[in-house]
User: What shape does this take?
Amino acid sequence: MTVDSERIGPDEAMNLIDAWVVIWRDKWIVAAAILIGVGISVIYILTAQEWYQAEVLLKPVDTRSNQGLSSELGGALASIVGIDVTASISAEPIAVLKSREFNGAFIADLNLLPILFARKWDASNKRWKSSDVADQPDVRDGINYFDKNVRKVQEDKKSALVTLTIEWKDAATAANWANVIVERVNDLMRNRALATAEYNVTYLKQELAASTVVTMQQSIGRVLESELQKLVIAKGNKEFAFRIIDHAQIPKYRVWPQRVLIVSGSFLVSLALSVFFLLSRSAIRRNRLSATIPKASGSQ
Assistant: This one.
């Protein structure tokens, strides 16, 4: 009876030495797999779109000190009953920064849809390539793409610092968008505070003029003073919602593709797949050999 020339016998389990013999005997397959895998990764690196990352480091402004007497009393009362009002104050500008309404306005005002969906945009004719309205991106598509692929907001609970990150294909554009977004958030929050304070001041002045009770006039006067303080602070403070610790700079290096990571990853994956293939093939051959041995013994 003739037995296969492999070291691995039909009834033997494959050990490390047997595995090494199998791999070494067909090492050209491993080398070819690695060469192909690394070659594909190099082609991808050379043709892949480059992405850059720009970051702005922010600190939410604690506006409790800007809200006058009524807020101070409310804050004192909240502290007595164990309520932390800082979280809600800091949460509002962060929520606005992440909101669909704010990002939709940013995309619409800067006309970013043709930039975000450049593959679908005919730049020469300044229109979408598809005439079907269903295939033309709208602001909702832009918001989803912007939220998932472009803008990221990270909040450090310990330091109360917020990092706004913009990833885009052009380094200068990424830095510009990051800085503009922070400026727009501050403007939006300041304008809201101004509108509220101006409305309250107008209302309180009317009530003060109509009131004839001295104690009521004094109470209205204190609240009016509080609203006037908020109005002055909002007008004179450009960094109303976020104080900018570090502006976004034009990034020098790309964040994708990461050449070393991709090449090393393709090398390891190609090596693992080729070794798995060789060991699996050897195991199948061994099983087939073990199945044919009884037949050969019975025929003798």
DSSP finds ten helices and six strands in the chain.
